[in-house]
Design goal:
This protein is an alpha/beta fold. The chain has 2 domains: about 270 residues, Zn peptidases (Aminopeptidase, 3-Layer(aba) Sandwich), CATH 3.40.630.10; about 110 residues, Alpha-Beta Plaits. Helix content is about 35%, strand content about 25%. The strands form 4 sheets. It has an 8-stranded mixed sheet with strand order 1-2-4-3-5-16-6-15, sandwiched between helices. Strands 10-12-8-13 form a 4-stranded antiparallel sheet, with helices on one face. It has a two-stranded antiparallel sheet with strand order 7-14. β3, α4 and β4 form a beta-alpha-beta unit. The longest helix is centred in the last third of the chain and has 21 residues. The two termini are about 20 Å apart.
Length: about 400
Amino acid sequence: MKDKIQQLVSRYSSDFINIRHHLHAHPELSYKEFETSKFVQSRLKEFGIPFKVMAETGVVGLIKGKNPDKRIIALRADMDALPIREENNVPYKSRNEGVMHACGHDVHTTILLGASRILQELKDEWEGTIKLIFQPGEEKNPGGASLMIKEGVLKDPVPQAIFGLHVHPGLDTGKLSFRGGMVMASADELYITIKGKGGHAAAPHLTVDTILVASHLVVALQQIISRNRNPLSPSVLSITSVQGGHTTNVIPSEVKLMGTFRAMDEEWRFRAHELIRKQATELVHSMGADIDLHIDVGYPMVYNNEALDEVARATAAQFIGKDNVLETEVRLGAEDFGYYTRQIPGCFYRLGVMNVEKGITSGVHTPTFNIDESAIGIGVGMMAWLGSQVQFG
């Protein structure tokens, strides 16, 4: 089976590259992946794979092998791009100004399409059913995964396990990395508005200095992490935007703060929310100002089922060699794949796409992000191998 998968990867490699180039040149923002969705549908139709549309732009396909009820595995890819202006000088550069596949979702979609084609062609040689999930809106709350789940993506049939991958620009091409347990953090957005009586900067005693209040608050919020969190539990609170005032001699009546809160523990996560509200409100009021505070609850943490992770590692070692299967580091980045892992056992792994000799080293979410495209064949083969071989539960 492995040899047949590798032969098909080699046969279709140029097509996989072309798919990636098309997707990269035509990126679409979260929940607006209309043309991307149509493209995915057209390819699944070409492969003879039945599918349906969910969450407006999501696509769910189904491939049945021998004994289709024996096991049911879901494979997931995300499709949305970011509001970034691309700076790469490549023939497949984004044609949508200010929108770019800077997080590799074009690669993820390509890999799942490629694996779908191979699994469909070899469906008489593996057992079970494969559910293909092409998901919108991973980059923006409430997360396309949550919408797909609400519309029943994990039903009819119910998968026993789900796999997803993400490109890793810090990992050499030819490598895969896995981790059981905690993998990525929850992510909540903070929106704070401080209000007070503005006035002349030369007469601060006649005002409520919202700039000063905001400054104290930014510093004070860090104590929530340093003094209340278990030091062994990764967590971070970052204020990333301060907006207030427009000239040198006016104290503004309003200052807006934005930020993010990340955690690896759900109990601590929501306790921290309470502390943020309490400390921010009391501090701002003690300085004579008013406050509006909103915490937009985002994605849960990604937790890889330990047993499934072990199975996936062993399966990967069979396909790519033990020396090429590494340990993924804990990351405080977030992924809405966490919604799936709260429902069923999941495994979210990393695909190396870095090539130092070719100068391909830029991180995700940057205008120069790109990949070593030889990684695409590895990703396609690995996902097809996992889909056809993993036995779990």
